[in-house]
Amino acid sequence: MERGKMAEAESLETAAEHERILREIESTDTACIGPTLRSVYDGEEHGRFMEKLETRIRNHDREIEKMCNFHYQGFVDSITELLKVRGEAQKLKNQVTDTNRKLQHEGKELVIAMEELKQCRLQQRNISATVDKLMLCLPVLEMYSKLRDQMKTKRHYPALKTLEHLEHTYLPQVSHYRFCKVMVDNIPKLREEIKDVSMSDLKDFLESIRKHSDKIGETAMKQAQQQRNLDNIVLQPPRIGSKRKAKKDAYTIFDTEIESTSPKSEQDSGILDVEDEEDEEEVPGTQDLVDFSPVYRCLHIYSVLGARETFENYYRKQRRKQARLVLQPPSNMHETLDGYRKYFNQIVGFFVVEDHILHTTQGLVNRAYIDELWEMALSKTIAALRTHSSYCSDPNLVLDLKNLIVLFADTLQVYGFPVNQLFDMLLEIRDQYSETLLKKWAGIFRNILDSDNYSPIPVTNEEMYKKVVGQFPFQDIELEKQPFPKKFPFSEFVPKVYSQIKEFIYACLKFSEDLHLSTTEVDDMIRKSTNLLLTRTLSNSLQNVIKRKNIGLTELVQIIINTTHLEKSCKYLEEFITNITNVLPETVHTSKLYGTTTFKDARHAAEEEIYTNLNQKIDQFLQLADYDWMTGDLGNKASDYLVDLIAFLRSTFAVFTHLPGKVAQTACMSACKHLATSLMQLLLEAEVRQLTLGALQQFNLDVRECEQFARSGPVPGFQEDTLQLAFIDLRQLLDLFIQWDWSTYLADYGQPNCKYLRVNPVTALTLLEKMKDASRKNNMFAQFRKNERDKQKLIDTVAKQLRGLISSHHS
Q1: Domains parsed from the chain with CATH numbers
Q2: How far is 305 from 161, CA to CA, in rounded Å?
Q3: CA triple 29-34-37, angle to 5 deg
Q4: pLDDT tens profile 726-765
Q5: Are 767 and 683 spatial neighbours (Cβ–Cβ below 8 Å)?
Q6: Among 420, 429, 324, 327, which Cα is nearest to 386's?
Q7: Which of 307, 455, 505, 791 is 20 to 30 Å from 229 by CA-CA measure?
Q8: What DSSP state is assigned to residue 291?
């Protein structure tokens, strides 16, 4: 029962579900029926549902059949009426067709006319549209044509402006045309072409200024020289004002009509006019050396293209390279002044151009960049000048170089460049200049001293006298009173040396000009250089002459006289320096001239040389001495060599009349002492082993001749027998042996008032031994004679006593 109930319940549910699905199928759009059918197939009652579906279909078919049967008569009536209307419609169709044919035939011409009108209207519209488009395109084409013309004529900056207008104003209006696309694609290429061409122009400009830097610098330095000459003529002491005027004049080098802030004009070219209009005759043929328009155009172009920084960096880099080339001096620059001049011209030309660029452009170069370049240039220039100037041995070239450096510095100072280091370097070159002057004057002094005849200057008339006095400050009232012909006491080298010292001072003064030094500094420089000339150069020249091997006593005497007069002239040299520098000698820190010391030293050297020379002459005469130490004959006159020696000394001392008294006296005393010493050495020399009393007598005659010479007063100023004291040792020794006064000698030895005080027992013993040996040899067969034996014993006794004196003296 229960199963039956359950089956009945399930069949009711299935039937209700199938009914719901059927209603849903009837009411739902066929496109959405898929899910409904899926639910049927998902179920298990598919067959039963199909039965119900067929049943439902049959029901609907019956309903449709009922409805059709109900309306069938109306349908038949409608068909009948429609068949009737078909005939009428066919007639109407025929009439319409006929009417249409007639209308078509009649309207054919009108259609053709309308078609023609249509085509005309279309063409008119197309033409109007074309004109409008062409009117829109023509400005673009005109601008492009203008751009090409400007490119062709190298008007690149206007071309760049045209390109900008074309790109931003005209091309956007016709951007849909193909030719515009081509133009748009060409615009970057045109910009690059303009950049390349302007850069090429800039490179040509850089090459041009590199070639013309020499001429630019030359002209700038000429103008600075002309301005300085003008300042010297009008005597304008304030240098600052003159420099400002020079700065203004210097800018007349540049004949520029430039408005750097307004690059619209194509005429914005700056031409380097290297001469002022007023100086056209003085500096001809140097106009339009450099055209600055390429650099201005290139600057404007790169600025418009947004690449100004790139352009500035390129320009500065290239100019730095050119600066290094300009600052590299040629290896032979030191040989001629033209080498230095060309070097300076190039440097000046370089910085004149940079200064012009600085003042005519906005930021292409700045002051820091210029200062950096100048610092580099200054250091390299100073190093080059130090190196090359050290090779200069000609003072005239060094002086010309100094003047060129001053002009170089003044020219650049006009343009605002600091040049203090150049003037500091000139002070170094000043020392080198002094050295070259000293070398030159060493040669001048050597030539003067070598060519001098070392004889007093003879004058035969007043004109010659005044000429000498004009060259050398000499005053002598007695000489002025003497009649012509007469002689100056000094030789020709005195006025020549004095004049050359003044010339040296002038040469030193020339170097100090335009160095912006104070008068005190100039005075100090001149005095120090003159002191070097006197104490080193002139002193060495005099010493070389004095020490010359073939120098004679006459020359030495004249040198002493000359140096005496030169020494007196030192005060006039002091006055001369004071007059040209206007610095009084009493001024603090003023150096004094050391000429007095120089001439004193030379005179002392000459005096010593005279003493040495006299002694050498005496030695030469003594070498002619030919004594027969074993003679027994008693002579009655002095030896010939000694007579000649005395005659020489007399003639020599006669020349000493112009020497200072002490010099002549010292020379005479030195000669007598040397003669006495040499004679004593001749008597006691070891080669003379034996001598006789006769030889001693002859020697005594020679000594008497010397004493007679000393008594004759060959040089005035000696007191009584002062000169004879030079021979006192010889005199006492000879008297002792000739008089054979041994008892007195031995008895009084050691007493202050001893007659033979100057006789040394060693000397006496040496001479006695020589006589004893001679006596033994001559009397070897007469030794048995009583007198001879007594004499021999006496000699032995005296010798023994002398040895006792010597031993007691040593103990």
Answers
A1: 177-229+287-417 (no CATH), 624-808 (1.20.58.670)
A2: 10
A3: 110
A4: 888 888 888 888 888 888 888 888 888 888 888 888 888 8
A5: yes
A6: 429
A7: 505
A8: B
